[in-house]
Structure formats: structure tokens, C-alpha cells
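TA notes, week 10

Several of you asked for a full example with nothing omitted. So below is the full record: C-alpha cells for the whole chain, then the designed sequence directly under it. When grading your own attempts, check the secondary structure regions first.
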């Protein structure tokens, strides 16, 4: 079994997710207490994607998020760095056009998508700015990005309770349901070291995204960042 370090070597990250692919969706449901479904619904709404538009769903994993777009009649391309995740997704939803791809070197032409979205995956990209710049490149002028990612609860009391869950409860629960407990130790560590809402918004602005804004979900445990390409 493997886990990535916070250096986020692409091969280590891909190998770690290959290891957890089979039980990934079940584990997410358990660890988030079912909140991942609500976060996914909020992300879909924030994209405001509609039939006739083309959506790139990065870090799509097994395609759980992508199927919401497809079922709504929207063209969606699920893309993930882990071949193991993609293989599970193809078996589950063979109608989706899965692509194995690196967020820092996307295998798509410039100005290809109306919407780019990434949920709980930007945190795993070795160079966040490079990933955001690549997402900007493949988005059409006037298009938009929606990022759903773990963040920092602004309320100190709520943040304290969440930190206890993230650092102590989550790894123990993961040991009961996941095939790779170490991967979820990485999850906890990577969340703790991730930029807060304001710093991520500033980074998006710095690489060229405009009209950057965010809103908190579940008291800031998760944040949705949205921006456009001018």
C-alpha cells in the first residue's frame, strides 16, 4: 500500500489513488457523514452548466461527480490522474468519456471548455499555480471555473472541533473502511497545510482568473471558489 507525501510527487499521488480506487466512493460517504453528496450538488449548481456547454471535470475519480452533468444532458469530460480510478469509473459508467490526464499538463486544446471544475483534487496537484494556469488555458473566453475544496472554518470553535475530527477521528474511521489507511493520513495532513479561502482566491487572481469569489459550505469545512476567464 502507498501514500503520497506533502511534496505531492505525481507518481506517488497517482499510486495512492490507484490503491484506494475500489472503495473510494464508499469511504468518502462514510468519512464525510454523507455531506459529500451535498457538496457535490452545490458544486453542480455553482457551475451553472447547461445543455450545449462542455464541462471538464478534473480529479473526477470514478466519475461520481461527472454523472450529474451527463444525466442533465450536459457534455462532460471526466479527467483524472489515477489510471486505477479511471478504470473503476469506466466499468461503472461506460457511457462517460474518461480521460487520464495531469492537471499541470492537460491533454486538451486551448479554449476547449465552457466550464472547468475540480472537486477535492486541486490540493493534490504538486504546483497549484501551474494547475490553475492550465485550467485557465483550456477554458474559453467568458468561461468559468468552480473549485470545491476543503478549507478553513472561520469560526474558532467550529474550526477546533473540525481539526480534532480531521486529525484524530478521520484516520481511525478510514482504517475500518479503506483498503489504504495511510492514504487518509495524507488526506488529513494535506488539508491542514492547504491555503485558506482568501489565499486561494488570491492565487487564482495571480494566474489570470478574474471576478474571483468564494462561499463557504458546512461552516467553511469546504469552500466553493468561482471565477471567470476574460
Amino acid at each position: 500500500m502507498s501514500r503520497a507525501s506533502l511534496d505531492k510527487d505525481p507518481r506517488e499521488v497517482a499510486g495512492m489513488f490507484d490503491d484506494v480506487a475500489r472503495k473510494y466512493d464508499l469511504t468518502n460517504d462514510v468519512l464525510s457523514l454523507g455531506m459529500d453528496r451535498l457538496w457535490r450538488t452545490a458544486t453542480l449548481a455553482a457551475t451553472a452548466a447547461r445543455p450545449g456547454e462542455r464541462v471538464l471535470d478534473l480529479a473526477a475519480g470514478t466519475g461520481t461527480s461527472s454523472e450529474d452533468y451527463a444525466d442533465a444532458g450536459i457534455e462532460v469530460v471526466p479527467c483524472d490522474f489515477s489510471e486505477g480510478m479511471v478504470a473503476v469509473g469506466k466499468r461503472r459508467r461506460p457511457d462517460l468519456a474518461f480521460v487520464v490526464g495531469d492537471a499541470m499538463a492537460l491533454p486538451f486544446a486551448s479554449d476547449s471548455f465552457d466550464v472547468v471544475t475540480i472537486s477535492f483534487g486541486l490540493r493534490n496537484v504538486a504546483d497549484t499555480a501551474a494547475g490553475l494556469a492550465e485550467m485557465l488555458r483550456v477554458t474559453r473566453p467568458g468561461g468559468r471555473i468552480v473549485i470545491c475544496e476543503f478549507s478553513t472554518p472561520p469560526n474558532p470553535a467550529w474550526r477546533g472541533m473540525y481539526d480534532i475530527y480531521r486529525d484524530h477521528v478521520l484516520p481511525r474511521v478510514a482504517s475500518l473502511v479503506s483498503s489504504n489507511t495511510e492514504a487518509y493520513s495524507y488526506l488529513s495532513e494535506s488539508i491542514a497545510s492547504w491555503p485558506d479561502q482568501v489565499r486561494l482566491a488570491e492565487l487564482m487572481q495571480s494566474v489570470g482568473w478574474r471576478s474571483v469569489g468564494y462561499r463557504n459550505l458546512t461552516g467553511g469545512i469546504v469552500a466553493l471558489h468561482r471565477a471567470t476567464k476574460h
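The chain has a mean pLDDT of 88. Use that as a sanity check on your answer.
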